[in-house]
Design goal:
Elements lengths: L1 H11 L4 H19 L16 E4 L2 E4 L8 E7 L2 H9 L4 E9 L8 H5 L6 E8 L6 H10 L8 E2 L2 E2 L5 E5 L2 H14 L10 E4 L4 E2 L7 H4 L8
Parallel strand pairs: 8-9
Antiparallel strand pairs: 1-2, 3-5, 3-8, 4-5, 4-10, 6-7
Helix pairs in contact: 1-2, 5-6
């Protein structure tokens, strides 16, 4: 049927030259398929390009880069400024703000602000350990807030603003405890930072994500 249509269309001048050319190619392809032959040289199909993986606005090809990442989670007061600090570090793949360490499933921001759910405002950090170490993240954590004030950072008061490290492995726990001991001498008062196993991380509402970046700010105004 295809060949008859092609012949008639070509003879009657119904099809334009480009259309006839395409049908001729389809005819050749069908003949090669029936005969078990290969496609003409230069027409063989190319292997598909590797699909890029998109992670929080960053793209990398799995064909060229086999990345192994880890997660870390920190509570250090209002999560807007904390996220902005970690987001800019080289080796950090993505960040997200949310709630962890509480007793209510899928809490809202309003729930957490009642200071009755037990959640802390937390930044979850996905990082490439070949570019930045967990110990370096801990250094940034300690320098980015006051770990000696219980349930408070600046004007923000409540258990949701507590200083806390949620570890994802025994290695992270050991590193956090060691770092806490080493940093103790640098503060005039005892460090009250909690070190706890990572619990369910509830991602915060979308308007909280990259809050300061969206507004062209680098830190929270006091």
């Amino acid at each position: 049927m295809l060949f008859e249509t092609l012949t008639k269309a070509s003879r009657n001048g119904v099809l334009e030259r480009q259309t006839v050319k395409k049908l001729n190619w389809l005819k050749r392809l069908t003949i090669f398929s029936w005969s078990g032959g290969a496609l003409p040289l230069g027409r063989q199909s190319r292997p598909p390009r590797p699909m890029p993986t998109i992670v929080a606005g960053k793209s990398f090809s799995l064909h060229h880069h086999n990345m192994t990442t880890e997660k870390a989670a920190f509570g250090a007061g209002c999560f807007w400024g904390v996220e902005e600090t970690f987001r800019k570090l080289k080796g950090v793949i993505s960040t997200a703000v949310g709630y962890a360490g509480g007793n209510k499933e899928n809490p809202s921001y309003e729930d957490v602000c009642t200071d009755m759910t037990g959640h802390a405002e937390v930044v979850e950090v996905e990082f490439d350990p070949s570019q930045i170490s967990y110990e370096k993240l801990l250094d940034v954590f300690w320098s980015g807030h006051n770990p000696t004030t219980l349930n408070r950072q600046g004007p923000d008061v409540g258990t949701q603003y507590r200083s806390v490290i949620f570890y994802h492995s025994p290695e992270q726990k050991a590193a956090a405890e060691k770092s806490k001991m080493e940093k103790a001498a640098q503060f005039p008062r005892p460090i009250v930072t909690q070190i706890e196993p990572a619990s369910m991380f509830w991602r915060a509402e979308e308007y909280h994500q990259r809050y300061l970046e969206k507004r062209g700010q680098s830190h929270c105004a006091v």
